[in-house]
């Protein structure tokens, strides 16, 4: 029997995006963002509450990075969603992770995450009480450990995690089960 659950952001999975920015004096900050995703061939959108340090940093530096959290760093990833750079200036330092400046945008690349999108800010606009940030992905850097023999990212090697807003769980991404634009092709016939 189907039951009504009311209005929920019931998409699953939601991503666990690690948004890296610079604040004053090039202080590195990283924030956990699940309300975000790819919204064009080279665009990414983030929904940020107006008080986030990350938002102020993005507006000041016109750039950010977005890394995919992996299972090995779930503790740090969750910490980035609990602590705020507004009240904890050494938020990133406390994580024990390391950062280097992106070669392409004015934002840090966190070295321990397997894949990072380097983004140029395109627009920030108020959207239903939250701030919608859209950036252009100008480059992707990936650890060679997650690449296949042709140099493409092998999603199975990312050990990426996803977020479940129903019960606030983090899940690991499972096995590949089929090929896209192919698994349904048989139904095209006849
Ligand atoms: C799993 C998870 C997902 C989150 N997703 C978002 C989000 O999409 N947008 C948002 O504004 N805050 C989100 N948060 C809360 C921020 O990460 C949190 O307020 C953080 O302290 C902000 O950091 P900052 O102020 O240093 O930028 C999320 C937190 C967690 C744990």
Folded structure, characterized:
Strand 7 and strand 8 (108-110) form a beta hairpin. The mean pLDDT is 97. This protein is mainly beta and 190 residues long. It contains four helices and twelve strands.
Features:
190 residues, mainly beta, Pnp Oxidase, Chain A, seven-stranded antiparallel sheet, three-stranded antiparallel sheet, 4 helices, 12 strands, 13% helix, binds flavin mononucleotide
Largest sheet: 7 strands, antiparallel
Count of helical stretches: 4
Shape: globular
What small-molecule ligands were found? flavin mononucleotide
Record field, number of beta strands = 12
| CATH homologous superfamily identity | Electron Transport, Fmn-binding Protein, Chain A
Judging by the overall fold, what is the CATH architecture? Roll
Structural class: mainly beta
Radius of gyration, in angstroms, nearest whole number: 18 Å
Strand content: 35-45%
| Span between termini | 34 Å
Task: Examine the coordinates and then state which fold CATH places here, giving the name of the CATH topology.
Answer: Pnp Oxidase, Chain A
Strand order of the largest sheet: 3-2-6-9-10-5-4
- Name the poorly predicted regions: none
Helix content: 10-25%
Q: What's the SSE blueprint?
A:
Blueprint: E1 14-15, E2 17-22, E3 28-33, E4 36-40, E5 43-48, H1 53-61, E6 63-68, H2 74-79, H3 91-95, E7 99-101, E8 108-110, E9 115-127, E10 130-142, H4 155-158, E11 161-164, E12 169-172
Antiparallel strand pairs: 1-11, 2-3, 2-6, 4-5, 5-10, 6-9, 7-8, 9-10, 11-12
Flavin mononucleotide binds next to strand 3, strand 5 and helix 1.
């Amino acid at each position: 029997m189907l039951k009504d659950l009311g209005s929920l952001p019931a998409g699953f999975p939601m991503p666990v995006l690690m948004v890296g920015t610079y604040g004053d004096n090039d202080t590195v900050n990283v924030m956990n963002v699940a309300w975000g995703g790819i919204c064009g061939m080279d665009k990414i959108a983030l929904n940020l509450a107006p008080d986030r340090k990350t938002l102020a940093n993005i507006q000041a530096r016109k750039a950010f990075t977005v890394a995919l959290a992996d299972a090995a760093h779930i503790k740090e990833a969750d910490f980035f969603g609990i602590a705020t750079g507004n009240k904890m200036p050494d938020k990133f330092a406390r994580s024990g992770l390391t950062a280097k400046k992106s070669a392409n945008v004015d934002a840090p690349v966190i070295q321990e995450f397997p894949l990072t999108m380097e983004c140029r800010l395109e627009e920030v606009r108020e959207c239903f009480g939250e701030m919608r940030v859209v950036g252009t992905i100008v480059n992707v850097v990936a650890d060679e450990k997650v690449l296949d023999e042709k140099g493409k990212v092998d999603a199975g090697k990312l050990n990426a995690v996803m977020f479940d807003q129903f019960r606030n769980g983090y899940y690991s991404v499972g096995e590949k089960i089929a090929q896209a634009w192919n698994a349904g092709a048989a139904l095209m016939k006849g």
